Amino acid sequence: MAKELPRSLTSYFAAKNRRDIDGMLVPFSPDATVRDEGEIHRGPAAIRAWMETTTRKYRVTVEIADVTANGDAWRVAGIVSGNFPGSPATLHYNFTLAGDRIEKLEIGA
Which residue among 27, 49, 69, 72 is buried most deeply as judged by most CB within 10 Å? Predict the structure, then answer.
């Protein structure tokens, strides 16, 4: 791993692997956005709904394979296993942090 993850990202992935929606939400800022599967989710209610839907549908776990950072921008390559065709697959989680909170998350191949 190129860099050690900040606490907010460590907490996010730990909660994701436990399928703990409340825990996944904790590191997000109140005005955060998430872009996944071509859709944008803004704010806590929309992000919670996205987390609940994707967690129920895919039941993924993420093994962190690589981490890079450039200022507040963090790119995490994760080996994602779950209930989807092609599992496991490597996905990239692109985070923008504001202090110790996640301001933006984009997930893609």
Answer: 27
